């Protein structure tokens, strides 16, 4: 049985607790959200590695992931030794190709570009949809049912139009948040496939 988004949220929190972290609620002004994220990232480190008293902490420019640094960080996690396979696709814009075994070898792609980190998976080709106008209207009305994910219509390098599900994060996101995004996206792809199956030609289902 596939896990629900709530189950992945619980697993995500469990991993944080196993790292020895505790949850604290804070209140900040909206314009300071990015600085809070930077401080949170710093405070997840062991006390001995924190900046010493009196040292200035740069909260304006948190370290950004690159495709290669993210690859090295992800491949060392237990998830990628038992439940998933990860590789780098080199090119003008390098990306990560992740195969999720638990989801029938579902391929997920992760791209880092400037301040944005994109996690995405292909759904179906445009030509596989019986009534694109009705389908697009349905997506606009229901896509909020899939938390943290959005559906778009993209043109692939070969020229073929494809529906894609994606989630976007900051390229300074915590590694645990990136893993959570990958897992939630995979779960949402399965749910979307079931929810919109009646719009697809039988050969694409």
What is the SS-derived class? Answer: alpha+beta
Note poorly predicted spans: 53-61
What separation lies between the terminal Cα atoms?
A: 19 Å
Largest sheet: 6 strands, antiparallel
Radius of gyration, in angstroms, nearest whole number: 19 Å
Strand content: 15-25%
Quote the average pLDDT. Answer: 82
What series of H and E elements makes up the topology?
A: HHHHEEEEHEEH
Query: What's the helix count?
Result: 6
**DSSP helix fraction:** 25-40%
Shape: globular
Number of strands: 6
Strand sequence of the main sheet, in spatial order?
A: 1-2-3-4-6-5
Give a brief outline of the structure.
The protein has helices spanning 5-18, 33-43, 67-75, 79-82, 132-142, 175-195; strands spanning 84-89, 95-100, 106-113, 116-125, 150-155, 161-170. By secondary structure, it is an alpha+beta fold.
Describe the structure in your own words.
By secondary structure, the protein is of the alpha+beta class. 34% of the residues lie in helices and 22% in strands. It has helices at residues 5-18, 33-43, 67-75, 79-82, 132-142, 175-195, and strands spanning 84-89, 95-100, 106-113, 116-125, 150-155, 161-170. A six-stranded antiparallel β-sheet has the order 1-2-3-4-6-5. A hairpin with a 5-residue loop joins strand 2 (95-100) and strand 3.
